[in-house]
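1st attempt posting a full record on here, be nice pls
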Amino acid sequence: MIDHFSLPAHVPLLLQICGVIGSVIYVGGFALVQCEHVCGNGTGYAVSKIIAAMLVLLSLIDAFNLGSFLIQIGFITFGYWGLTRRRPGTAEIAAAESDAVAPAAETGRAPLPAATPRRAGTPGVSGLRPSLPPAPHRRPAARRASPPARMRFPSPSEPVR
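the predicted structure (as tokens):
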């Protein structure tokens, strides 16, 4: 069989290193979101996923895998799409267009909550966010209810009531 595409000896190692770096970015970003150090809806998270996907896609030059290729294309496509939706002014333009087409009263949908500016130090995209009540899992420790009392199960020797 004729090899139409041969790489110099050092290139496969470099491609493998790119794949490993991309994997570290994927897993590291996911870990940061789970530890609540980074916002999963933030621009930085989306950019990191796009960079990781490009690095892993680059590593597929040496050892192609269709499943991995499709996953990386999906991450790049949807990451870029999400970034274009987050551009400053995009939300306001989309809201103005949707109100111009059909106001909320005519469509029967509830109006969207008003947007409030983010506080300094809030992880994620700087700009606007909906003013919603805090999620129950984000309440400070002082507000959390005490855990429910443990149920006592009868032992096999006790009569059932």
